[in-house]
């Protein structure tokens, strides 16, 4: 563009401005040639680029332009590695440029409220801190290449069931602490050039026109100045949307809405200033993304290597009894490879995030490559594609396993189960696969199970019968090679679960309300999502949040915590105490010991992935801020950190806490705003108010028989009584001329005067 945004705003006609507020087609914004405004080209997605063959088609069920398929969200979320996310972001930015993509529609960062969420595979975690840090690193990577990112789906879209007609009913505190928190962190740390609103309603209003969400919170509070665009067809009332701050409608051209916008400006329902605000944000986006035409060509081998590296950090070694893994090549002569996924791996989920990969590593081929002729390999299909019961396949697998030294089973959620647009029905493996594992484990004690799914799995019917389990997630086109490398110890696993794996589905806190009814879905479990719930309920999961084993071991010592101004510096020593080089995802959790409001037992507030040589020791330092100690106080409508004792814990998982320190943190004192119903305890907690109250009670006691002395006993009993009620109870014969209301108002006025 050769004109400034202000110049363009004055040169554009009203009709042109209105038309700019929707796309040209499925994947482009409109350009205006006479003013040299080029269109923006955007495509999905979250774990790779889904560029369709034409800009007119949605391309969900067809093959698209080949691009690198990286691990999906839940997989790479389990890497706990912000540097990796940045690196993948940079590579995606470069690949985007080479493919003519200026805006990439990702990442997806919604919280995993239920393991049944159909798009869980796209999202990073059940925890907002982990999600927020990873998402920000990813976006910073993409945008460092001059390509825009689109943070989605904003907000409260945590499952697929009837999402377009369902209102997520979420109380304000839960919304702030759980469902908006990752978005907030990402907006503040990476300033995404666009944000995509979700399909659902939030507390009764479509997010595409939700003033509270898009304006009060996103723009006013968080200071976001980028473009908000709609999810594909998420627009309901276009004028309401524009007023709330939804700039761009997708897909376009939506001529009917351009017409409606012009009419709304002409009849005064929408001010031209409001329209100009959206248009200038769209023009700013055009300015940002165009002019970054590619220099590089798409480098398939380099990106494939990165896809493997990312997969290697994502997979989680869940169980390793008697150090069955890594398999020792020299001590086995035959291996049974069982299960269709060994030859046809599930590398990703379905829907708008599905990438047509440039190539795919096949586990069977990779194991064969790695072993050469040293070990004989046998294959059994294990289960049919539709998972219908087939005893023959089980028998064949059992016989192969019996006649081999080791069995490796490849199982998982079937392809058809995990997709955008519908939720999962179950988190158990299909019945046939469960029987298969049980039957093979019964004849072959050296049995390793490699599971694939994009969401938590329940494993209780079989996990206790096998010594080794690797959860490979849906780890993209490089996962086949990585599985082979982990099995035989060429890669030391370092992924840790980014979501809790419950014993069974009904343990999950959302279980009582998984589906919306009559257009409303109440998030009644509130803050207690994921590990926050299992901790509070004292319910043991199968594998906890943050769990993941390594072929080496780490020790945590010398924890020091110091408050510096309103922040806290935390340091400790991490040592690799094993015999192999390895990476540890260290996790820092905070617990508020004293807050009167209910708070989770612990919350993740920082983490780092550290690589150490055997015997190497390193000092790790985290800087926490006041916000890391805060909760969202709906009385004041802001974040509050209360002075008092906190526990700061460092762990290898949310259930494997290695060291903890208590620290008294001083965040100052909240100045209470007194009102008619302020409690006796509140009056006593404020020195000024307490003095005013004592003076008043002395006066009252002269006129009443049942006198009020603020003894420990008296306060212990009456502390939760609103002060006005204390006067009603004890001051009847004193308030001859005045009402209890008058007395309280007088006291409040005295406190205010004394404070000045
Ligand atoms: C999805 C978005 C996606 C868009 C474009 C929608 O169905 O919810 O995540 O970016 O389609 O494909």
Describe the overall structure.
It is a single chain. This protein has 756 residues and is of the alpha/beta class. The chain has 4 domains: 1-37 and 147-290, TIM Barrel (Alpha-Beta Barrel); 301-537, Rossmann fold (3-Layer(aba) Sandwich); 554-665, Immunoglobulins (Immunoglobulin-like, Sandwich), CATH 2.60.40.10; 680-755, no CATH class. It contains 22 helices and 24 strands. The strands form 6 sheets. It has a 6-stranded mixed β-sheet. A 5-stranded parallel β-sheet has the order 1-2-3-5-8. Strands 7-6-4-15 form a 4-stranded mixed β-sheet, with no helix packed on it. Strand 12, helix 15 (431-443) and strand 13 (447-452) form a beta-alpha-beta unit. Helix 2 (14-20) crosses helix 10 (255-266) and helix 2 (14-20) packs across helix 11 (272-289). The longest helix is centred in the middle third of the chain and has 18 residues, at 272-289. The protein is globular. Bound molecules: beta-D-glucopyranose.
Key attributes of the depicted protein:
binds beta-D-glucopyranose; TIM Barrel; 6-stranded mixed β-sheet; Immunoglobulin-like; alpha/beta; 4 domains; 31% helix; single chain; Rossmann fold; 756 residues; 24 strands; 22 helices
Rg, Å, rounded: 29 Å
- The N- and C-terminal alpha carbons lie at a distance of 56 Å
CATH hierarchy class name of the largest domain: Alpha Beta
CATH superfamily annotation of the largest domain: Glycoside hydrolase family 3 C-terminal domain
Instruction: Enumerate how many helices there are, as a single number.
Output: 22
What count of structural domains?
4
What does the overall shape look like?
globular
């Amino acid at each position: 563009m050769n004109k400034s945004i202000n110049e363009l705003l004055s040169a554009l006609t009203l009709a042109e401005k209105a038309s700019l507020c929707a796309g040209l087609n499925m994947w482009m914004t409109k350009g205006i040639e006479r003013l040299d405004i080029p269109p923006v080209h955007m495509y999905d997605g979250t774990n790779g680029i889904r560029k369709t063959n034409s800009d007119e088609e949605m391309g969900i069920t067809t093959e698209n332009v080949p691009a690198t398929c990286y691990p999906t969200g839940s997989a790479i979320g389990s890497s706990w590695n912000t540097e990796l996310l940045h690196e993948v972001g940079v590579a995606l930015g470069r690949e985007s440029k080479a493919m003519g993509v200026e805006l990439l529609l990702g990442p997806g960062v919604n919280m995993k409220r239920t393991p049944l969420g159909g798009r869980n595979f796209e999202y990073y975690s059940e925890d907002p801190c982990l999600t927020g840090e990873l998402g920000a690193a990813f976006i910073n990577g993409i945008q460092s290449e001059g390509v825009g990112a689109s943070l989605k789906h904003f907000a409260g879209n945590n499952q697929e069931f009837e999402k377009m007609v369902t209102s997520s009913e979420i109380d304000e505190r839960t919304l702030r602490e759980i469902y908006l928190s990752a978005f907030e962190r990402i907006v503040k740390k990476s300033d995404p050039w666009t944000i995509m609103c979700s399909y659902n309603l939030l507390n009764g209003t479509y997010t595409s026109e939700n003033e509270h969400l898009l304006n009060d919170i996103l723009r006013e509070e968080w200071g976001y100045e980028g473009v908000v665009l709609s999810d594909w067809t998420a627009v309901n009332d276009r004028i309401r949307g524009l007023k709330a701050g939804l700039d761009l409608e997708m897909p376009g051209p939506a001529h009917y809405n351009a017409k409606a916008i012009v009419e709304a400006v002409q009849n005064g329902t929408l001010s031209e200033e409001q329209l100009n605000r959206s248009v200038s944000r769209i023009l700013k986006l055009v300015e940002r993304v165009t002019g970054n035409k590619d220099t590089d060509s798409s480098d398939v081998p380099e990106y494939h290597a990165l896809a493997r590296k990312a997969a290697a950090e994502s997979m989680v070694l869940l169980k390793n009894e008697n150090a069955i893994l890594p398999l020792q090549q020299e001590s086995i002569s035959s291996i049974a490879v069982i299960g269709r996924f060994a030859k046809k791996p599930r590398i990703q989920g379905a829907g708008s995030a599905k990438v047509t990969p440039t190539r795919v590593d096949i586990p069977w081929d990779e194991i064969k490559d790695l072993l050469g002729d040293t070990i004989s390999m046998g294959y059994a299909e294990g289960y049919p594609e539709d998972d219908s019961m087939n005893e023959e396949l089980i028998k064949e697998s059992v016989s192969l396993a019996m006649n081999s030294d080791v069995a490796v089973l490849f199982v998982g959620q079937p392809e058809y189960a995990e997709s955008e647009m519908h939720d999962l029905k179950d988190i158990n493996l299909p019945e046939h696969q469960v029987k298969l594992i049980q039957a093979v484990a019964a004849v072959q004690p050296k049995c390793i199970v490699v599971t694939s799914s994009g969401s938590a799995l329940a494993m209780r019917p079989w996990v206790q019968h096998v010594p080794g389990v690797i959860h490979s997630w849906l780890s993209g086109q490089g996962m086949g090679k990585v599985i082979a490398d982990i099995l035989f110890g060429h890669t030391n696993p370092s992924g840790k679960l980014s979501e809790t794996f419950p014993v069974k589905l009904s343990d999950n806190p959302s279980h009582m309300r998984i589906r919306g009814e009559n257009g409303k879905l109440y998030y009644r479990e509130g803050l207690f999502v994921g590990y926050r719930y299992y901790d509070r309920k004292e319910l043991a999961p199968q594998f906890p949040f943050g769990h993941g084993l390594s072929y080496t071991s780490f020790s945590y010592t010398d924890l020091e915590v110091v408050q510096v101004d309103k922040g806290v510096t935390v340091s400790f020593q991490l040592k690799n105490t094993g015999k192999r080089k390895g990476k540890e995802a260290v996790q820092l959790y905070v617990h508020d010991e004293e807050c009167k409001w209910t708070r989770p037992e612990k919350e993740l507030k920082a983490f780092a992935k550290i690589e150490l040589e055997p015997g190497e020791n390193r000092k790790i330092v985290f800087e926490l801020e006041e916000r890391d100690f805060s909760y969202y106080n709906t009385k004041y409508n802001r974040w509050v950190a209360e002075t008092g004792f906190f526990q700061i814990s460092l762990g290898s998982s949310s259930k494997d806490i290695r060291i903890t320190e208590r620290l008294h943190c001083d965040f100052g004192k909240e100045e209470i705003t007194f009102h008619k119903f302020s409690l006796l305890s509140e009056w006593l907690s404020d020195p000024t108010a307490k003095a005013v109250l004592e003076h008043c009670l002395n006066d009252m006691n002269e006129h009443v028989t049942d006198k009020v002395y603020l003894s420990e006993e008296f306060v212990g009993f009456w502390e939760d009584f609103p002060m006005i009620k204390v006067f009603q109870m004890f001051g009847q014969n004193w308030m001859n001329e005045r009402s209890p209301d008058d007395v309280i108002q007088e006291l409040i006025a005295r406190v205010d005067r004394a404070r000045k």
